[in-house]
Amino acid sequence: MKHQQDDSPDIPNLARRGDPVGPKLPLSAFIICLNEETYLGNCIESLEQCAEIVIVDSGSKDGTATLVQSYIKSGWPIRFIHEPWRGYAGQKQFALDQCTQPWCFNIDADERLDQPLKALMPSLLEAPDDIAGWKVARRPYLIGYGYTPEKARERRNLRLIRKGRGRYDLRQKVHEGIVPDGKVGAARSGSLLHYRPLIIDEQILKENNYSTLKADQQFAEGKPPRPYKMLFGPPLYFCRLYFRNGFWRCGFPGFIQAATGAVYAFLTAAKLYQRHALKTRPNIDDAFSG
C-alpha cells in the first residue's frame, strides 16, 4: 500500500498546550507510532525547535490521528503519514527517508527532550563535517520514583544523524539502531526522558516479546547457543544497569528496573538455546517406546 498524507478536514483542536514558537533548527524529528494517543502529545510539545516533525503511523485505532491533526491545525510543522508496518528497523528507515532537513532526530512517542538537551541541540547541529551523528542518553520514568537523576541513566544511543550519513540495519528485529557513515560523538549533557511507566506485569510481557524477537533474529543469523549466557548474562546485565549506570541511586524502583533487564537477558539466551535444541532433538513423547 502506498503511503499518503493525512488531510482529514475540520479536526477539533484537542490536547494542545501551546503553539510552536521561536526560531527553528535545521532538524527533522521522526517518530513511528501505533495507538500512542496517551503519550504522543508531550513528545510533540518537546520538539518545538524542529523545523519538521515526521510522524509515521502504522494503523492507529485510538485518537492518535485526531491528536496529531489538532497540532497540525495549530501550526506545528508536522507531516503525518500512514504506512503499513515494516518491522521496527524498516519502519524507522521509512520515516528517516521522509525527512528533509540536514539533521534528523529519532525519537519514540513515549520520549521527550529535557531542557538541557534542548539547550545543547544548536551546538550539536554545528558539529564539524566529520561528525556524522550524536549519541544521546536516556532516562526512564520509574514507578515509585519518577524520572531517574542525570547520573542514573541508560546507555547512550545514536539518535541524531546527518541526512544521508546513516541507515538502519534492516536485519535487526528489535533494539534497532542507526549505522553511521562517519564519526559519532556523545552529547555531553541532556537526555531523552522515557515516560512509559508499566507495572511489572506489563513490563515482563514486554521483555518476553522483545526477547522472542531477539532470539529469532539470532537464530536466523545462525548464532549458536551459549548456555553460559543463561548463567552469567543476567547478573552482568543487572550489575551494568544497577551499579555502572547508577540505578542504585533510585532505591527499589531502580532495583526493579535493573532486575527486569536481567530477565530479558535470561529469556533471550534461553530461547536461543531451546530453538537450537528443538532443531537437533524435536520433542517426542517416548514414555512407552522400546
From TrEMBL:
Signal peptide per UniProt: none
Pfam families (UniProt xref): Glycos_transf_2
Protein name: Glycosyltransferase involved in cell wall biosynthesis
Naturally occurring in which organism (per UniProt): Sinorhizobium kostiense
Residue ranges of domain Glycosyltransferase 2-like in the record: 28-142
Source organism, top-level taxon: Bacteria
Protein family (similarity comment): Belongs to the glycosyltransferase 2 family. WaaE/KdtX subfamily.
